[in-house]
Design brief:
MgtE N-terminal fold; 3 domains; homodimer; Tetracycline Repressor, domain 2; 6% strand; 6 strands; 3-stranded mixed sheet; mainly alpha; 66% helix; CBS-domain
Chain lengths: 450, 450
């Protein structure tokens, strides 16, 4: 079933475009899903993509536009007139339409909205644009099927036949009172099973999950995943039904959030994508690297302050990268598990218990690793006992302290309202590097006395 | 709307259980969603959890069981008889039922399946258990609404009223031919809008996305996310309709996959959770730490082999953690972006172009960082020029090589069918540490000649 984009297909298409064989191209794309056409367009030269957008009918191109990569869509929209964009927008659901108009400059937004034939859609888009990013309001669509509690099943079916044509997918039918306040829901299935003279109020479910229009999108994702919901109605502060969010948009929120956390842990300062330009990628990578360099500088100073050891115990310096690396790895492990626990709301119990648990893990890991290190160092590198003890004791201390830091930095960040995922990656590695080296040489000084 | 578990609530509940006030407890949970009750049970003592499972009716407890954390469910199932488990299973959808039975020992599986009253469900469960893990077959449910293409809308509505009662959510109605082969689909909405004397074949959509029963679950997640599907039918190799997968199960696949990648990058060798025991957590952390220790050992040997520099250029050794850290950070960035590109199928273009892109990024990052490092080293630490040049040149080389390694290891792993996420984290950091130090001292030897 998946449509595969081959080089042959692309070459053939480019040739058809060059020869302006519009009929052949239309036929070629006839049975291809818009998400696949969007992928083809992402691969084509920009002029070729524009050619195809202008060629296909707006019912298809409106869907393609919503699926394109952001930078390519931006360029295409720049090459369309306000009227042409309005034609595309007119075919979209209100949430997709608002997303795309939101990418335009304010001045172009006005012109496109004015050019829309559909006044209701124009009003919906204006409303959706007014909500803050990453809230239920910005995510929801205005299209939904709504019935009044006083209606009968038969009357309801008649009205739904009208409303449903506008709504791509009917998950639930929302039941409202005279003031448009959400009072219940029923599924199409319930309606089909019911007798035609029953009242809606009698067959609808009273308890209906809903979210407020200001709710954060990640919170909505958690709620929908937890309760296995496929759509959730959105209400304003007076409980008036204003829109609905469907699971396909939430799937995107979940994927974006996972990507963001992963990139943050890997040391990117902003959202990037493998096909971004070298300049964009470098801009995203450099800030954390500069921070790491700065941290590295501190570690240079720390090492410099222990240069008295150089004379009698030069071997100590051979171990600094090992100690620093272990501190970094342990810290990242500890913080990653906390970041995930925070993300899944599964972090429970007191801070003290958490601390104890980390120290015990640190001890367990530390003893195993220190024993390995000490025996290997003494057997293969011929270390004297006091040096072996120093390195082993340092390793255990460093691992325990790195665990504690890795655990508490994300917890503290989360308490202050900062994304805890910021803690993993370069931040933890760098601070643990420095601290690890400091602890290591302090213990060495204590044991060996230089 | 979200139900919050407070300490007061838990204390109150424990007291009611101790006093065996079953009526009050039943009332307490009356309007609470089963996913919330599962969270309460995760918090309670084990005996208390068993008490509640035995108290509430199986319609509710069957749902609670599917939502519980694995280890707690395992313990509860151990304390229920085969007949009691069969009663719970009897209330579940076939996919949930098979998942839970699959956790039992083979011998208990047989006893529970024999104890089921519902022969159709028993057969369905046996079939679902026969598919390999992480395939469409293991993920799908047998419950679906199916109609024959020759039926009329009116006849179809009658039959659906019967079938739909069994199916929790009707997304699509699947149209099959006489041999039960999938030939189309229609939505409930289409059915409601249609006239009652129309033929199903006339209103159904011919092109229907489906997946084969052997398809990998991550592949299905990609397909459903790409095409915004809420359910997808599953067919066997003869295109006979055998089940369907719904988006809520796919949401779990996406979340699990993201968690797995994140943990792999953080250096866990198996799936862990913040509330796991110290022993389980240590077992998951130790393997990568031992690998990192082994890598650290190699870096010790590399440094030891350059001990000739100790006499004239001791400062060189102060920079080893800095160089190693930069190599590690750059490597993780490079591999993370490739891992994501591979996961999203967005990695295109030739390997040569990819290499060039990485080298250019490395040069850009490298020059900025080397300039910072050199000026800071010479200004604040009073380095002579030749030392400054050595460290700066090494940093640039190390960054470029770390980028290349970070880029190509995940690509090579993916080509060999190994999860590329394995590359990020300790593996890349450790190998880049060693290589970074080696490059650094080799360049130093060349420039300074010790």
């Amino acid at each position: 079933m998946p449509f595969e984009i081959s080089d042959d297909f692309l070459d053939n298409l480019s040739e058809l475009i060059a020869k302006d064989q519009s009929k052949e191209i239309t036929t070629l794309f006839e049975d291809v899903h818009f998400a696949d056409i969007a992928e083809v367009l992402d691969e084509l030269d920009f002029d070729e993509a524009i050619y195809i957008i202008k060629l296909l009918d707006s019912e298809k191109t409106s869907e393609i536009l919503t699926e394109l990569e952001d930078d390519i869509r931006e360029k295409i929209l720049e090459n369309l007139s306000a009227k042409e964009i309005a034609n595309e927008i007119g075919e979209m659901d209100s949430d997709d339409a608002a997303d795309i108009i939101g990418e335009l400059s304010v001045e172009r937004q006005d012109r496109v909205i004015k050019a829309l034939n559909d006044e209701e859609l124009a009003a919906d888009i204006k409303e959706l644009l007014s909500y803050e990013e990453n809230t239920a309001g910005a995510l929801m669509a205005k299209e939904l099927v709504k019935v009044y509690e006083t209606w009968t099943v038969a009357g309801c079916m008649r009205r739904i036949r009208g409303q449903a044509k506008e709504v791509t997918r009917v998950h639930s039918i929302y039941v409202v009172d005279k003031q448009d306040k959400l009072v219940g829901r029923l599924s199409l299935k319930d309606l089909i099973i019911a007798k035609s003279d029953q009242k809606i109020a009698d067959i609808s479910k009273d308890s209906v999950d809903s979210v407020n229009v200001d709710e954060d999108d990640e919170e909505i994702a958690k709620i929908m995943a937890k309760y296995d919901l496929e759509a959730i109605p959105v209400v304003d502060k007076n409980n008036v039904l204003v829109g609905r969010i469907t699971i396909d948009d939430i799937v995107d929120v979940i994927r974006d959030e996972a990507d963001k956390d992963y990139q943050m842990a890997a040391g990117f300062s902003k959202d990037v994508e493998v096909n971004d330009t070298i300049w964009e990628l470098t801009k995203a990578r450099l800030p954390w690297l500069i921070l790491a360099l700065f941290g590295g500088f501190i570690s240079v100073s720390v090492l410099g302050s222990f240069d008295g050891a150089m004379k009698n115990y030069p071997e100590l310096f051979f171990f600094t990268p090992l100690i620093a690396a272990m501190a970094g790895n342990v810290g990242v492990q500890s913080s990653a598990i906390i970041v995930q626990g925070l993300a899944n709301d599964s972090l429970r119990g007191s801070l003290f218990k958490r601390l104890l648990k980390e120290i015990l893990q640190g001890l367990l890991n530390g003893f195993v690793l220190a024993a390995l290190l000490m025996s290997a160092g003494m057997l293969f590198l011929g270390f004297p006992l006091n040096l072996g003890v120093t390195v082993a004791a340092s390793l255990i201390s460093v691992i325990i302290i790195a665990s504690i830091i890795g655990t508490f930095i994300p917890i503290i960040l989360a308490k202050r309202g900062i994304d805890p995922a910021l803690a993993t990656g370069p931040f933890i590695t760098t601070s643990n590097d420095i601290l690890g080296i400091l602890i290591y040489f302090s213990i060495a000084q204590l044991v060996l006395g230089f």
